[in-house]
Structure formats: structure tokens, C-alpha cells
Amino acid sequence: MVRWLVTGSGGRLGQELVPLLPAANTLALRRHELDVTDRSAVLDAVAGQDIVVHLAAWVNADRAETEPAAAMAVNVAGAANVAYACQVHKARMIHLSSDYVFDGKATEPYAEDAPVRPISVYGKGKAQAERVVMEQLPRSGVILRTAWLFGAYSNNFVTTMQQLAEVRDQVDVVVDQIGQPTWTRDLAERIVEVARIDAPAGIYHATNAGSASRFELARTVFAAIGQDPARVRPTTSDRFQGAARPAYSVLSHAGWQRAGLPPMRHWRTALAAAMPAIRTLRPPRARH
């Protein structure tokens, strides 16, 4: 039976993925159990594994701007270590990347082979990691770019909107960021499928179909929990500080044809399916 290693298994995606894998043949390592910047430790962890799903990452884009060395160590050196270990032990690597590798200046969905032009420390790290993985594993590396993850585990935009609906009369949300909300459950299932069919090496865009602004997504969440969507007011990104975000990061899904898989379902359908679990497992904070 195939043996799996999942790095960063305690994160929002890892908690969706691990239950889908055979427990007896899965080594799920959380951040404190495997330091991906330690090459020796990574080599030991990968030994004997057939498929390595590399989820361990520095995901706080804002903190990456103020702690770039630490962010790069995890996102670039960590990915390089895992890729090297997979090369040594002849394991398949599935690496998670991000829409932040693009600058957001496009007017149509980014193709898988579109030039990367990151505009933040986080995005630069993810772009460098992609390059390292494909250089190390040109025949066995799979990169899944994803975006705007939501789900029942860990805080995310959808859970935040649900919480704010309970404690604020109005919520200001940006209208000038367009992307693809993606359910972690759908992404986890796609990872399993990619491994099952032994998809060709390369880059794929693993996001739910369709697109939305943050503002549209927020209003959809409010409606889903029985709150008035008009309480969400439009604003623009220049009102907020932090890492630069791509204004437009809609990704094309043409690459799935190469793997013989359909694109993932529309984000609205996915959100409707996810909301019962999100409301059960991530209840809104009580009023103060």
C-alpha cells in the first residue's frame, strides 16, 4: 500500500486531508514534530515514504513583510529540503503554492505557465519554492497553486465574516481584490485524486471555479447564515496596511485536462456545502 507523509498536518488543509488517507500508512507531522528547515530531519522523515504532501509553510503574508528571513527559511529552504529528500528517497512530492506568485495585473485568468511576478515577500517565497521543486523533481514534482482557502479548521476569511456578523453592525470589505474562494475539503480531495491517478508532473491550479471579490464573498457568507448582506459595505485595499495582495488572482484550470480530471466545482456550490460544518465546528464568538 502507498505510504504517505504529510508535513504541516496541523494546518487548515492538513486537518481536512489526513482523515482521507489510510491511517495505518500515513505519517502526519505537525509543525512542532518536523522542522522543515532541518534537512537532516526532513531526510529521516521522508525515508520510506511514497508520496509526500508538503503543506508546511509560513502563511501569514503580513508578518512575512516584517520577518522576511524567517518566512523565506520556511517557504523556500523548507520546500528545497523536502524536494531534495524526495529526490534522494525517490518519493513523489505534491507541493502547495499560491496565487500570490502573480502580480494581479491580469485581466483574464492566469494560465499555469504564465510568468510569475510576485509583489510581496510571501509571494516571492512561494515563487522561489516552485522553481526549486521543479528543478529538483522535474518528473515527479506536482505543484498545486491554490487561493482564498476557507473551511472548518483554523481562522479564515469565511469564519471571520461569520464571527463579525455576530459582533458588528456593519463590516467594511474590499471590492478591489478578485480571486477564487476555495474549500479546503475540495482541495484535500483533489490532492488524493492527483496521487491516485499519478498525475503528470507540473503545475496545476487547484481552486474552486468561478471568481468573486472579497466583498461579494462576504455578502454571500452573511446571507448563508441568515444575516442581512447589506450590512457588508464596500471599501478599497488602500485603507488597509500589510503585504501587497494581487488585485486580480483568478487562475485558469486548463491544466486539469492534461491530468484527465475536471476542474473543481464552483465556489458558491462549495461554500453552500461547507457552511454547515463551518457553523458547527467554528461557532461565532459570543457577544461581549
From TrEMBL:
Its EC number is 1.1.1.133. GO terms for cellular component: cytosol. Residues 4-275 form the RmlD-like substrate binding domain. It holds the Pfam family RmlD_sub_bind. GO terms for biological process: dTDP-rhamnose biosynthetic process. Keywords: NADP, Oxidoreductase. One of its GO terms (molecular function) is dTDP-4-dehydrorhamnose reductase activity. Pathway: Carbohydrate biosynthesis; dTDP-L-rhamnose biosynthesis. The keyword Oxidoreductase applies. The keyword NADP applies. InterPro entries: dTDP_dehydrorham_reduct (IPR005913), NAD(P)-bd_dom_sf (IPR036291), RmlD-like-bd (IPR029903). Belongs to the dTDP-4-dehydrorhamnose reductase family. Catalyzes the reduction of dTDP-6-deoxy-L-lyxo-4-hexulose to yield dTDP-L-rhamnose. This is dTDP-4-dehydrorhamnose reductase. The lineage of its organism: Bacteria, Bacillati, Actinomycetota, Actinomycetes, Propionibacteriales.
